[in-house]
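It is worth pausing here to work through a concrete case rather than discussing structure prediction in the abstract. The textbook approach is simple: state the sequence, then state the predicted structure, then interpret. We follow exactly that order.
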Amino acid sequence: MKKIATVTFHMAWNYGAILQTYALQQAIRGLGYDSEVWNYDCKKISDCYSTWDASGLKAFIKALFMYHSKSQKDKKFRRFVAKNIGLTDKITKNNQAEIAKQYDAFIAGSDQVWNYKLTGGDGAYFLDFVPERRKRLSYAASFGIKEIPEDRKSFYQKNLMGMGHISVREKTAASMIEKLCNRKAEVVLDPVFLQTAEQWRKIMPQKKEKGYIFVYMPGTHTIESAVNLARRKGLKIIYCSYDISLRNPKKNVGDIRLSLGPDEFLSLLDGAEYVVTGSFHATAFSLILQKKFFVEVPPMVGSRITDLLTTFDLRNRIFDHESSLEDNEIDWSEVEQKMNQLRKQSLMSLRYSIEAVGHA
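Step two, the predicted structure:
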């Protein structure tokens, strides 16, 4: 049995990051391989989710105010990871090259593992600690940015040329790679799509709330639009938030949930009448779980959402300040047919990339 390690954002207490980590490991194991998540701590990432922020007096006061909810959330994320995700022992820059010898292949991704703004340009997400090029794979890796700055191009060119098989999550990422280093990259589904709705529901709490709109990672106009929709439909709002605004209390709408675990997040999304969001993964789960949804595309990192909705011919679910939330019906049979087809292709690509390591 081949032993595979994935290198991804498993220490980011972000719902999409953790759930895609889980989904990719499940997919690899489902294909018959041994899979572990490389337990490497990129401080640039994990520091963003620290319970404390002592960068200034205002930040300290807010951290004090938010401490209880953040510590509760931290416990739930750690519990979910311990129960559902198989990690290696702790990995550091000093020992990763030696420990890497124990594995047959490495997979970078998914999520925005190639976004230098998030990783600080950490070469570990390009598997630079693995000497054999053929063992350095990616699955559904994403840049999360529209273009590579001039002063970063040589870093990206060097690391992308050092990769074996490359697959990415968005067509825009494939175009960037071809332009940067004249390499072809395969476009595949985000790992969360590799699990079916039935499989996702197995890890959700069974108790479901009713009669609400689920709001997550709102954009500039999301809150106002969700409030108007709730008023029209006679529904309440459950708002999964990372924060409470002390400066602008009008943003604190509905029933705010600050300390949901990943499984609770999924359950609330699944039970909603509507999902209103600015998040890629909330959009993805709305498609998987067949929820009526509306998405406000973020201006700087929105290509991943528009690429996804273009794939499923659902760009009409995008709204902005000039549009209202029109409750058009979605042909879920067409969405499911397309998803099943792309899931099959993506799993075939994943298997091929791993099997090819032994023949390179």
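Step three, interpretation. DSSP finds 13 helices and twelve strands in the chain. The longest strand covers residues 34-40.
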